[in-house]
Amino acid sequence: MTAGRMTTLTSGDLGQPLGRRATFVQLSSAFCLPCRAARRVLELVAGEQEGVAHIELDVGEHLDLGERLDVRSTPTVLVLDADGVERVRATGAPTLAQARAALARVIGGLERPSSA
């Protein structure tokens, strides 16, 4: 995952509220198999941390946003800080370790995941 482009997104841009601490924004497409894997990982990591949201958007239904964000492949994952500023960007399905590390870069130290 690489440093973001300093794009700022709002809940109005995404159609859903941002996380209080951070937000994973996943730009997907309908027939993308890696998008399904990314969804599982990002939902898990977001669920481990208070105030972290996961928002998945179909780029085909949000063409303007996809163009604005220069999305060239799916999945594209952005990690936004509490103010909606893009801090990390990646293409492809992240591993659990990659997603946790990207989130840690944005919000600092992570709480230990609760055991289920």
Walk me through what this model shows:
The model has no long low-confidence stretch (mean pLDDT 92). The chain is globular. It is built from 4 helices and 5 strands, in the order βαβαβαββα. Helices cover 33% and strands 24% of the residues. The chain has 116 residues and is of the alpha+beta class. Strands 1-5-4-2-3 form a 5-stranded mixed beta sheet, with helices on one face.
Q: Based on helices, strands and strand pairing, what is the structural class?
A: alpha+beta
Helix count, DSSP H or I runs of 4 or more residues: 4
The oligomeric state of the chains shown is: single chain
Strand content: 15-25%
Q: Which radius of gyration do the C-alpha atoms yield?
A: 13 Å
Average of pLDDT: 92
End-to-end Cα distance: 28 Å
What order do the helices and strands follow? EHEHEHEEH
* Strand order, sheet with most strands: 1-5-4-2-3
Fill in the keyword field for this structure.
5 strands, 33% helix, 116 residues, alpha+beta, five-stranded mixed sheet, single chain
Q: What is shown here, in short?
A:
The chain has helices at residues 11-14, 33-48, 63-68, 96-107, and strands at residues 2-3, 22-28, 52-58, 76-81, 86-91. By secondary structure, the chain is of the alpha+beta class. The longest helix has 16 residues, at 33-48.
